Amino acid sequence: MVYGVDMPMTETASGRADGGVRSIMRAVDLLDLFDAEHPWRPLREIVTLTELPKTTVVRLLATLEGLGLVADRQDGTYGLGARFLQWVRLSEAMWEVSEGTRRVMRELVDRCGETVNLYIRQDASRVSIAQQEGTTTVRSVVTVGAQLPLTQGATAKVLLGAAPAPVWELLERRHPEVDLAALRREVAGTAEIGYSVTHGERELGASSVAVPIRRHGRVVASLSVSGPTSRFTADRIGGYVDAVTDAAQRISAAGLGSVEVFL
Amino acid sequence: MVYGVDMPMTETASGRADGGVRSIMRAVDLLDLFDAEHPWRPLREIVTLTELPKTTVVRLLATLEGLGLVADRQDGTYGLGARFLQWVRLSEAMWEVSEGTRRVMRELVDRCGETVNLYIRQDASRVSIAQQEGTTTVRSVVTVGAQLPLTQGATAKVLLGAAPAPVWELLERRHPEVDLAALRREVAGTAEIGYSVTHGERELGASSVAVPIRRHGRVVASLSVSGPTSRFTADRIGGYVDAVTDAAQRISAAGLGSVEVFL
């Protein structure tokens, strides 16, 4: 990744880039509106959520539909197009963690009962590339592959510990509202103590314990246990930290599989 | 889908659109370069294949990388980013055909030995949304989800039989090299006889037999059997036509499942 201070094209909010870059971001913002809870959306809803003029949305939908990235139903709602099928197997194969890693993650779920995620940093975001859901009815679930903020959450503090200076510059430009000095202190503290615990930073009532996964001495990912804050009580946190640390050490020793070429 | 003669934004070749639309098309053209045979590509290769200036490609890659759609390896090659994981389950779930349809397709493979595909029309392209591979070493394989031309191949002639006028207008604009009058005659003949047989239209040495799948009296998809031309001999074609027609009638009667909302 080439970071350029003069290239604001990696902004996440499409409103802050220009021209063609903005169009690509708008397209991705629109495609992001579709998830398991909202597989179809009416035009009206897409206009509201993208905060774009209706004419722009209609034009964008027509473009995406022509490219097979969006499809419409007979009832006038829109969803993901069949073209995504083209990338399904390839992206899964490329980002698959080793069977050994998945086994350690499942064992960690068995031990804690809570959802386990493996996060990596991508540019100035964090992304879960593997998830094993917890065993309880009320559990933490994130969308694998979705970009989450690097300014919030336990895994963010772990991953930022290994982030180069340009990532901090991006954060400064994108998140003027965040106290980066405070975040730097938290990141430094996390690196020193070896784990991070957060409660409700990104979402009220959601807690997480995260530790680094190292390969060849470098932090390449973060393993976390997440669940409702009500179960992350003081008397349990210690056990969670121990369990996730053990698991991360096993994964660090064995490796994550072929996905490491990206990390 | 709103077709507009004054909206050339649905052109497939990015060179023929303008502004933001072109950027989105270029981005998709670039992402299309990655497939099972080419999961990673060096910058040099991407520049050559996209036929874009190197500076444009570098800028585009930086944008896509910032959005998590592209990732780079330590050796300087690029591949699909982890963000695609976000759409994997959803797109698979949305475009999944019913278990009954898959069973009929597998039985058709057992009967013919050749690869079976279920194609739909999307805008002015055709796309396989389900595939059962043949049982022989030399077999026909297409990428499920990939946009293929509606001007070539047996399933194209079946699907065009149900295409509205604006689709023909798009084909006229996009494929000035194609004799559309001749194609119209072939499509009419296919509709009359109920099947289409092609040899080497899209790829030398590849043959196909295709028939329509109808729902509520309307052609919504095309079922095909494809393989090397050397096995699609005159004495075998009749059997293939019978087999694929039987299978299509069973699918037409039972339905394709929830994917029908898009068809």
Q: Which oligomeric form is depicted?
A: homodimer
Can you tell me the CATH architecture of the largest domain in chain A? Answer: 2-Layer Sandwich
The separation of the N and C termini of chain A measures 12 Å
Net shape of chain A: globular
Polypeptide structure, described:
Two copies of one chain form a homodimer. Chain A contains nine helices and nine strands. The longest helix of chain A is centred in the last third of the chain and has 21 residues. Chain A has a six-stranded antiparallel sheet, sandwiched between helices. Chain A has a three-stranded antiparallel sheet with strand order 1-3-2. Chain A has two domains: 79 residues, Orthogonal Bundle (Arc Repressor Mutant, subunit A); 168 residues, GAF domain (Beta-Lactamase). Chain A is of the alpha+beta class and 263 residues long. The N terminus of chain A is likely disordered. Helix content of chain A is 42%, strand content 20%.
